[in-house]
Write a structure and sequence with these properties.
single chain, 322 residues, MetI-like fold, mainly alpha, two-stranded antiparallel ribbon
C-alpha cells in the first residue's frame, strides 16, 4: 500500500512538471508580455526596465526554475489585464467554481445512480425504456443548448430563477459562498443542473450497463441459489461490484467538470475560474491562462490519487496485490 502511494506520488510529480513546462512555454512562444503591458509609444528604456523586472532577460532554465518555484508556492505572477497577482484573482474565483461543481456532482449522483439501478433491475419496464431515451437525448444535446433552454423556460417564461450571476454571497474568511443566502441558492440551481445533466445520463448508463453485467455473473446466480433475498443480492452483492468502474468515471468526470465548467460559467456569467479563463484568452493574459492550466492539472492528479485510494476501500483484495 505504501509503495503504491509512493509510486503514484512520483508519477504525479512528473505529470505536474510536464504541465508546468507546457504552461511555461506559453509565456515564451505566444507573445512578448512587454508589448501587452506597455503602450506602443513606450521608450526602449521602459521596455528594458520591465523586462528586467519580469526576469525575461535571464536564461530559459533559470526562468523555468523560477516559474516552478513560484507555482509550488502558489505564485503565478501579475495579470497583464488586471495588473493584480494571479493567485489573488484565482482565490476570489475558486469558491464559485468549486460550489458549482460540487452542486452539479451531487445532483448527478443523486439522480444518476438510482436511475441506473432501476434501469438495470427492470430492463424491460416502460420507465426504464423512457430513462434510456432521455439519457440518449441528454448525451446528444450540446451543453450550451441545454443551458439556453433552461434560461428560456425557468427565467424568461416562468420567471422562477435568475438567468445570470451568483446572487448575494457571504464572506467566511477568504471563502465567499452563496450557499447561505436565498438568492445565492436560487442562482446556483440552473448552472448546476446544466453542468450536471450530462453527468446524470453518463452515470445512469454506466451503472445500468455494469450492474446488468454483474447480475448475469456466476456468483450472483450462486447467491440466488443459496436462497438470498433479491434485496440482499441486488444491493449487497451486485451493487458493490458495480462501484469500481463507477468510482473511476465519477472521479474523472469530477475533474472534467472543473476543467470544462467554462461553458456553463460563460452561459450564466457565473464568476468562476472558467469565466476568468475565457476573459484571459480574449486578452492574451498568459499568467492567468498558465495558472489555470496548472491548477486544473493539479485537480486531475489529486482526484486520480483519491480514486486509486478508494479502490482499496471498495476492494480490500487490491491491497495484497499493490
Amino acid at each position: 500500500m505504501i509503495a503504491f502511494v509512493l509510486r503514484r506520488l512520483i508519477q504525479s510529480v512528473i505529470v505536474m512538471l510536464a504541465v508546468a513546462l507546457i504552461a511555461f512555454s506559453m509565456f515564451r512562444f505566444i507573445g512578448d508580455p512587454v508589448n501587452s503591458m506597455l503602450p506602443e509609444n513606450a521608450s526602449a528604456e521602459d521596455r528594458q526596465l520591465l523586462r528586467d523586472r519580469l526576469g525575461l532577460n535571464e536564461s530559459v532554465p533559470v526562468q523555468f526554475a523560477r516559474f516552478v518555484s513560484g507555482a509550488v508556492q502558489g505564485e503565478f505572477g501579475i495579470s497583464y489585464r488586471n495588473k493584480r497577482p494571479v493567485a489573488a484573482m484565482i482565490a476570489e474565483r475558486l469558491p464559485a467554481t468549486l460550489e458549482l461543481v460540487a452542486a452539479a456532482a451531487i445532483f448527478a449522483l443523486l439522480l444518476g445512480v438510482p436511475m441506473g439501478i432501476y434501469a438495470a433491475l427492470y430492463p424491460k419496464g416502460v420507465l426504464s425504456n423512457l430513462l434510456n431515451v432521455v439519457s440518449l437525448i441528454g448525451i446528444s444535446v450540446p451543453t450550451f443548448v441545454t443551458g439556453i433552454l433552461l434560461i428560456l423556460v425557468f427565467s424568461v417564461w416562468l420567471n422562477w430563477l435568475p438567468s445570470f450571476g451568483r446572487g448575494d454571497t457571504v464572506q467566511i474568511g477568504w471563502w465567499s459562498t452563496g450557499l447561505l443566502t436565498a438568492s445565492g441558492l436560487k442562482s446556483l440551481i440552473l448552472p448546476a443542473v446544466m453542468l450536471g445533466l450530462f453527468q446524470v445520463t453518463l452515470i445512469m448508463r454506466l451503472v445500468r450497463a455494469e450492474m446488468m453485467e454483474v447480475l448475469r455473473s456466476d456468483f450472483v446466480r450462486f447467491a440466488r441459489a443459496r436462497g438470498l433475498t433479491n434485496r440482499a443480492v441486488n444491493f449487497g452483492h451486485a451493487l458493490g461490484n458495480t462501484l469500481m468502474p463507477v468510482v473511476t468515471i465519477v472521479g474523472l468526470q469530477l475533474g472534467a467538470m472543473i476543467a470544462f465548467a467554462i461553458i456553463t460559467e460563460t452561459v450564466f456569467q457565473w464568476p468562476g475560474m472558467g469565466l476568468l479563463f475565457i476573459q484571459a484568452v480574449s486578452f492574451g493574459d498568459i499568467p492567468v491562462m498558465s495558472a489555470y492550466l496548472v491548477l486544473v492539472a493539479l485537480v486531475f492528479v489529486a482526484i486520480n490519487m483519491i480514486v486509486d485510494l478508494l479502490y482499496f476501500a471498495i476492494d480490500p483484495r487490491l491491497s495484497v496485490r499493490a
